[in-house]
Amino acid sequence: MLKKMEAALGLLRRMPPKQSETALSALLSLLPQHSSDLLSQVDLPLQVLRDAESRKDFILCEYNRDADSYRSPWSNKYHPPLEDALYPSSELRKLEVEANDIFAIYRDQYYEGGISSVYMWEDDNEGFVACFLIKKDGSKSGHGRRGCLEEGAWDAIHVIQVGPEEEEMAQYCLTSTIMLSLTTDDEPSGKFGLSGSIRRQMKMELAVAEGHLCNMGRMIEELEGKLRNSLDQVYFGKTREMVCTLRPPAEIVQMRLPDS
Amino acid sequence: MADEEDELPETELSYDQKKEIAKWFLLNAPAGEINYVAKDLKAVLRDEEVYNEAAMEAFPVYNKSHMICLEMPNRAGDVIVSSYSEITENEYLDPRTAQVAIVDHVQQICTKVRPADDEELASSYIEEFRCALDAEIQRYVSESYPKGVFAVNCVKGKDADGPGMDFEFVVIITARKLSPQNFCNGSWRSVWNIDFQDESQVLDIKGKLQVTFTTHLSLSVGAHYFEEGNVELDAKKEFQDSTIFQSADDCAIAIANIIRHHETEYLAALEVAYSKLPDNTFKDLRRKLPVTRTLFPWQNTLQFSLTREVEKELGLGK
Question: Which residues sit opposite B127 in a β-bridge?
């Protein structure tokens, strides 16, 4: 008999990506004893909160959460307020502030809209971890400038572990996840929906001469580009291939050998 | 088996709540994956009774909505399980061979066949139209689908014994490519309703086409990369057309031509939509390159923050 947790993850993988929230809550009610394991395995669409003081939105995730409060990267304050909460060291906070400013420019140049947040914290082995988040609503009614999408949600999560500096070099391990849900509805191609998530990892050892931010930024830019490429090339390519296998365009059919 | 995990408190859901959850998982299984979902579900539930009852209720619904195709014993061919061919929950008519397939939904097999009774079959007047259409659709499917399965069922007015009565046919065409062990499944379903309207001498044709594709990939790309993905595509399109009421053979040719025309056009439109995706549609989510058309100048980031500092000091910040 399969272990419950293994089977639960199998179910989560097979359910349609759009139903992952429902699938997760169903599994949580069936297996309450595994709730923390289940929650840590599943990426759900990112949530956003307003930082009234800074008049800016920020993204919520496990990395800026303490108890039931979330820390805003803009004001460095927890919402709702929390006593004795965790904060990054002042040195790391300085890098975090800088990262938020620069990543907002990066986000604007690639996404033409959307929301971004960066969180950092010290880890146990003298390095630190940074989490770069982007949420974009590319639908007609959101930030979709070209009006191609009825619905278009894109959530990017980049978690990067930075090792301690040794001889002016540092180890970087980046895990990037993109969650996507888009639908178009045009004549004559009808309704067309794509949803899902893809994840990739990349490790590098880099000189820190230009600063951590520069190294992390370049890695994120590269991996984000690769994931975007995978989504439109690999996954669409496969879909197209599948449609052609099921019902080939007329000219291919005519070329078939009579016995095949 | 005394798993550590079983010592912890179990769920407090009622029998019915558990059953509803189990049914939800089964009904949401992608094409071709219900048996894999069932296996995982059993392991999560560890409750045979709940599982069996949920399966008894969910499988028939799933099989009919996915229009699964089952092989009939004694080489009688295939039967499509659908609401259009349903006689009772476990019996499905194959009009081409005038046989009824007895189906075990949970096993997804056809256990036996029996000859259809007279009252289950259409009148000879209707059968003339149905047979003619069956032959034309057969030609189209064999020309256009490498592994297509189809059925032509009469869903309304099957007892009409001559002109003066309305009747309706449903043409189902399905094709699928399943490799559930590789988590990669595609299915094509098209359903065409043909309403023969005697008074207006018009054939009203409505089509619904659905293509779904699910893939769960896990690849290693060299030593420093891995990639995993879980992606689903769903494309749908509805059609409407009409033609004039003619002889059985002429109707059949006209209907098959209409179906062929719309399906071919749709494929071409889908190609165009795909080709626009990378550069147009995806651009509203994330551009390939920044608005500046060059990679982001990370090396100048120090500059950015210095400018900001200066702006702040001069009171120019937002």
Answer: none
* Residue B297 forms part of a structural domain: no
Amino acid at A173: C
CATH number assigned to the domain comprising residue B18: 3.30.1140.60
Q: Tell me if A57 sits within 8 A of A48, measured CB to CB.
A: yes
Q: Are residues B52 and B131 in the same domain?
A: no
d(CA B134, CA B179): 30
Give the pLDDT score at A1: 47
- 0.90 cut: is pTM over it? no
Rounded distance between C-alpha atoms, residue B231 and residue A18, angstroms: 10
Tell whether B157 is within 8 A of chain A (Cβ).
no
Return residues 167-206 of A near B (CB < 8 Å).
180, 182, 184, 186, 188-204
β-strand partners of A192? A184, B235
Interchain CB distance below 8 Å, A1 and B1: yes
Q: Do A191 and B288 touch (CB under 8 A)?
A: no
Q: What is residue B252's DSSP assignment? A: H
Query: What secondary structure does DSSP assign to B50-71, as a single string?
Result: HHHHHHHHHHHHHHHHTT-EEE
Q: Are residues B134 and B271 in the same domain?
A: yes
Q: CA nearest A144 in B: which residue?
A: B284
pLDDT in tens, B129-174: 999 999 999 999 999 999 999 999 999 999 998 999 999 999 999 9
C-beta separation of B208 from B194 below 8 A: no
Tokens 């005697």 correspond to: B198
Q: Which residues of A touch B284 (CB under 8 A)?
A: 138-139, 143-149, 152
